[in-house]
Design a protein that fits this description.
heterodimer, A: alpha+beta, 6-stranded mixed β-barrel, B: alpha+beta
């Protein structure tokens, strides 16, 4: 054993000594043999020759001797690496390009992977990721509508599910409400999220509140206790002692029994630092023992609770789903059937079980979005790889002569392939390392944005990325290596004296594949965000945004029925109107329903658009709303009509789209109510009564935003116009509002200008990402094209020389190469465009149609892509092609 | 090996080298001559096979090497079998005779 280690050690570190010994040993062999031949009667010279003949090729024997030694692999690899580094030094631009392309590709890929993993598996902040939680999702739909909509579960359903002990080891359920929590300090009156939870809530989540015993088990409604969030403990108690402290929640005294772990805002999360958890039984006391809250837990019709559970060992989500199905149908059978006075439509209920994490809503588009995103991720990586391969091929092809010389000197083909693969692998690793740097930088930059803090650098991603880098190196080094070593020796040695046919073919194919691959991505971005990018946004007239406050609160916390609430809100508006510096107070338009409008055929006129149905979001609006925002109606009026709300105010853009310059006032729409109710309720007739200015008032992006001027309704958002900067009045206004609504959580009102800025910021971020992605894709494509043409120019230098010597003009030479590049562009368009159009058509069939917003047609996007790709083809080929025209015929011909 | 001599079975060269070195430690040249003499010129081992075989055995710790002075006064690398090598050889020899016995039994069947 010791001998072995010593030998291995020598083989690695005393390599030159071993080499010398081997040379001496073989020389001794030759000399002895020569001496033997001399002794046999041959002359010294003949004996020497005979001995050499018998011994064979010394260099080859030495090579196999080296191979027999341990660590020979390390040495030849070190040699390969040294050689590779020397080569990169000679070709810094080509090497840097390959590394950069790989770094961008791998960094981008790693980030997209993180994003995907984050979106698919992220849990709410503070939730342990190793707890095997499942979510039990209730869902419902009208009997004759196929689409399920998510719904909470009733308390009796949760009780039944808790009994499924063979399926679930433990279950937790909760319902959430905004409350007002006070502790007698500065942060009083802020809206606070309250989760009313079942006994096992914290243990199912794998958490334990600190600083106290936690929520009491089996609590009745009189034992009022709460666990508070870490943020609230910091803000309201300065992380002090909370033993025996109390807070008042909606006026009731509640004992604090613990602090939740840091960042934890609930099993499903909560967008607030102020969160409390209370026993489910306390809900009716806190929310007021009105009829609705009192019967919430006993009525099978009251769909109230979100539910999670832990599965028993060896139970799958599919198995759990079938168990939950049975419970859902049992519980549904106990629900009140539709009657003339009660619920009107027959509903179907069901429930299923999914892994907790990511977006688990029943009706979410998540699977589709994930799939699309996954495909983009893969395409982006493929593009980078195709690019690298094209560049490596070009390097390999340019080195055919060098490779041929090495082959003829006795290097084996595997040896050369190993050399080339080492080179690309090394580049791939450097690119991978740089890519990780890019990835780290992106993650670091994004960690400042709290909304996306679920994107975390993970070792799995890093490992996968390095693996991808290695695989890229080996795989994409192999193809060109085979290609470069395949050609016949004699051909290669004669080298560039022949035309370039065939040499660039492989690389050309890579570039075509790559540009073809970029098109689906461009298409996707183009058609999904193209409309948003060019869309004109409404913006309030100058100075108005700063003078209007939006006061928001949760009106469901106001006790009493609708009429009682309306009375309270009327009082609130009156109280606000009486404040100094307040000019006017109007409820913010309230969303009423999603609907689709069709122009009455006799009013449709000549335009085709007027014959389509228009998806619309209908809002109730109070008289004076438009004037308050200094954006008076362009035509008509917003006075509620006497014949019960049949009038409609539409945007100037929609009016122009439908009727051009003709007067829209008095035109008729028929209103089809939402799809769910289609066919059961007769369409309603609406008359255009006014036109608002789309320059100032948002006209809606996906659906047309239309208003119905009506009176006698309330909203939990109130607009307050002031005669000075409104921000200064925010605190006073909230204080006044709290006088009227003591038990209602009220946010500090913000100005419309501020709200608009926030919205714009989000919009700009999306645009930035989209434009960045498109730019990156185009950049990669142009690098590939540039590489192909640059290579062709390099290879055909002699041919160019001959042509120019024979009288070809520089312009003709440039044109020749340009045509070459443009041909590649056209070919890839011919392959990529139909593919991406088909992809978009399939995607469109699966998503809700976006209307009212200008959405670029597939043909427009396709045409644009074609123009851009061709333009890039021309520019990317023009650069190297112009170099061709500068070839000096004399030099080019002599260099042979 | 020349084309006249029979093909050396894969792995048998290592066995031959070990056996001869156990009989007497020697250098590469002498070893080549001895193989040829003992096999009555049937086995002619090429230097291109012999030296890698020696290095391989050395790296596996089955033989050791020492630089000594030859009869002609030159420095020469003399190989000898280590203890591990002896154990390995005994095992190999046993396997070989089993194999050879089985082979000849099979070849005698009519």
């Amino acid at each position: 054993m010791f001998d072995r280690i010593r030998y291995a050690f020598r083989a690695v570190f005393r390599r030159s000594a071993l080499e010398r010994e081997m040379r001496d040993e073989m020389q001794y062999h030759l000399d002895e043999r020569t001496a033997a031949f001399v002794a046999g009667g041959l002359s010294q010279r003949e004996a020497h020759r005979a001995a050499r003949r018998e011994f064979g090729n010394v260099a080859t024997h030495q090579e196999s001797g080296r191979d027999a030694r341990p660590a020979s692999f390390i040495h030849s690899m070190l040699g390969d690496i040294r050689f590779a580094l020397r080569y990169y030094r000679r070709k810094p631009l080509a090497s840097a390009t390959i590394v950069l392309v790989l770094a961008i590709g791998i960094g981008g890929h790693a980030f997209q992977m993180s994003l995907l993993v984050g979106v698919v598996s992220n849990r709410a902040p503070g939730m342990p990721s190793d707890v095997p939680l499942v979510r039990i999702r209730g869902m419902q739909r009208p009997k004759d509508v196929p689409k399920w909509v998510g719904a909470p579960l009733s308390y009796s359903a949760v009780r039944e599910i808790e009994k499924l002990s063979g399926t679930f080891s433990s279950t937790a359920a909760w319902t959430t409400q905004t409350v007002v929590a006070n502790n007698g300090r500065g942060t009083d009156g802020e809206p606070t999220i309250a989760h009313f939870v079942t006994d096992d809530y914290f243990s199912v989540a794998g958490l334990r509140p600190t600083n106290g015993p936690g929520l009491p088990r089996g609590a009745n409604e009189h034992a009022l206790a709460a666990v508070i969030s870490y943020g609230m403990w910091e803000d309201a108690f300065a992380r002090g002692d909370i033993a025996d402290r109390e807070i008042t929640v909606n006026g009731a005294a509640v004992r604090i029994v613990g602090v939740a772990p840091s960042r934890f805002g609930g099993i499903a999360g909560a967008e607030s630092r102020r969160v409390i958890w209370m026993p489910l039984a306390a809900r009716s006391v806190i929310l007021g023992p009105s009829g609705a809250t009192a019967i919430a837990l006993s009525s099978p019709d009251s769909l109230l609770l979100e539910t999670v559970a832990r599965l028993q060992p060896r139970v799958s989500t599919a198995g759990a789903t079938s168990a939950v199905h049975v419970v859902a149908s049992q519980v549904a059978s106990r629900m009140t059937p539709p009657t003339a006075t009660g619920p009107k439509t027959a509903m179907v209920y069901d429930a299923d079980v999914v892994e907790m994490g990511g977006i688990t809503e029943v009706d979410s588009d998540m699977p589709l979005i994930t799939a699309v995103f996954g495909v983009i991720t893969l395409l982006a990586l493929l593009i980078a790889c195709a690019n690298v391969s094209a560049l490596v091929v070009s390097a390999g092809v340019a080195r055919r002569q060098e490779i041929a010389v090495r082959l003829s000197l006795g290097a084996s083909r595997p040896r050369i392939i190993r050399q080339l693969v080492t080179e690309t692998t090394l580049l791939a690793l450097i690119g991978g390392a740089l890519g990780l740097g890019i990835y780290w930088a992106i993650i670091k930059a994004l960690s400042a944005v709290p909304e996306i803090d679920f994107i975390k650098p993970s070792f799995a991603t890093v490992g996968l990325t390095m693996l991808v880098a290695l695989a890229t190196g080996i795989l994409f080094g192999l193809t060109p290596a085979f290609h470069a070593t395949r050609s016949a020796l004699s051909d290669a040695l004669k080298a560039s004296s022949h035309g370039a046919t065939g040499r660039t073919r492989l690389q050309g194919r890579f570039v075509i594949a790559q540009i073809a691959l970029t098109q689906p991505i461009l298409m996707l971005f183009g058609s999904l965000t193209g409309g948003a990018l060019v869309e004109r946004h409404a913006s309030l007239p100058a100075g108005v945004g700063e003078r209007v406050l939006n006061l928001r609160f949760d009106a469901t916390t106001i006790a009493g029925d609708d009429r009682a609430r309306a009375a309270v809100l009327q009082r609130l508006e009156q109280r606000l109107r009486e404040m100094p510096n307040v000019v006017s107070v109007i409820a913010n338009p309230r969303f009423e329903l999603n609907s689709s409008l069709s122009v009455r055929p006799s009013d449709a006129g000549a335009r085709d658009v007027a014959r389509n149905t228009i998806p619309a979001r209908i809002f109730r609006v109070r008289e004076g709303y438009f004037r308050m925002l200094d954006a008076p109606l362009l035509r008509g009026s917003d006075v509620p009509s006497s014949d019960s709300s049949a009038s409609l105010i539409i945007s100037s853009d929609l009016a122009r789209e439908l009727w051009g310059d003709a007067d829209p006032i008095g035109k008729h729409f028929s209103q089809n109510v939402s799809q769910a109710l289609a066919g059961r309720v007769p369409p309603k007739e609406l008359v255009v009564a006014g036109v608002y200015d789309a320059r100032y008032i948002e006209k809606g992006s996906n659906d047309a935003r239309v208003f119905r001027p009506t009176a006698d309704w309330w909203n939990d958002e109130i607009l307050i116009r002031t005669n000075g900067p409104a921000e200064d009045l925010a605190t006073a206004i909230r204080r006044a509002a709290r006088e009227v609504l003591p038990a209602t959580p009220i946010e500090l009102p913000s100005t419309l200008a501020r709200i608009e800025t926030e919205d714009r910021k989000e919009q700009r971020n999306i645009e930035f990402v989209a434009v960045g992605a498109i730019g990156l894709v185009l950049l990669l494509a142009s690098i590939g094209l540039y590489g192909v043409v640059a290579l062709a120019v390099e290879q055909r230098r002699r041919e160019i020389g001959v042509r120019m010597a024979l009288g070809a003009r520089a312009r003709e030479v440039v044109a020749m190469f340009c045509v070459n590049g443009v041909r590649l562009g056209v070919t890839s368009l011919a392959i990529g465009l139909p593919l991406s159009v088909a992809g978009i058509l399939i995607l469109n069939a699966h998503r809700t149609r976006v209307a009212n917003r200008w959405e670029p047609s597939i043909w427009l996007v396709g045409g644009l892509i074609a123009v851009v790709v061709l333009a890039i083809a021309v520019v990317a080929t023009l650069l190297p092609a112009s170099r061709a025209s500068r070839v000096d015929p004399v030099l080019a011909l002599r260099s042979e | 090996m020349t084309s006249k001599s029979p093909t050396l079975l894969q792995g048998t060269l290592d066995l031959i080298v070990l056996q001869l070195l156990q009989a007497e430690p020697t250098n590469g040249y002498e070893l080549a001559q001895r193989i040829q003499t003992i096999s009555s010129d049937t086995l002619n081992v090429n230097a291109g096979s012999l030296y890698p075989s020696l290095y391989r055995l050395e790296s596996r710790g089955l033989i050791g090497a020492e630089w000594q002075e030859s009869k002609t006064g030159r420095r020469v690398k003399v190989y000898s079998v280590t203890t591990t090598g002896k154990r390995h050889l005994a095992k190999q020899r046993e396997e070989w005779s089993l194999f050879a016995g089985a082979m000849s039994a099979i070849l005698k069947t009519t």
